[in-house]
Fold:
Amino acid sequence: MRANARSGDAPAAANPTATGALPVGPLLRVVRRQEVAFALIGGCNTVLGITLTVAWLAVLGDAWPPAVAVVLAYGMGIVVAFVLHRTLVFRVRGRLVRDFAGFVVVNSGGLLMNTVLLSLAVSALHLPRIPSAVVVMGLVAVASFFGHRYISFRRPEVQSPGTIG
Structure:
């Protein structure tokens, strides 16, 4: 197996600077699988999102619609999630603006996918709401992992010397 920054348990490429990848960090040294690190950071970000939403609801009070609290929490949470995924899960550098734009696009696609699939499951297929939400959220999490791996934090592969491309 060729080692690169994308495989779940392999170390970063031999020349991490050439790919924009960093050597394996502390989280990946502990969990060893990029997928597990992604899930851990996602779980932490979910807790953060709930905490921020509740905090904004308390700060804004009844003078503002609750949706404002959700938007503010999302705006703060996506920045934190981006930094954590970029530094602890995908371990890349450079291309900051492009990476953040891709991150927002993938997250927005996940929100759209979640909304559409849950609506289809409940309205069209008449499946129970809560189990459907759990299954759909799991599917979206998997899709998001691959979206972030191949869109948000994608780096070109470096060919070994003597390899014909």
Summary: The chain has two domains: 25-91, 95-156.
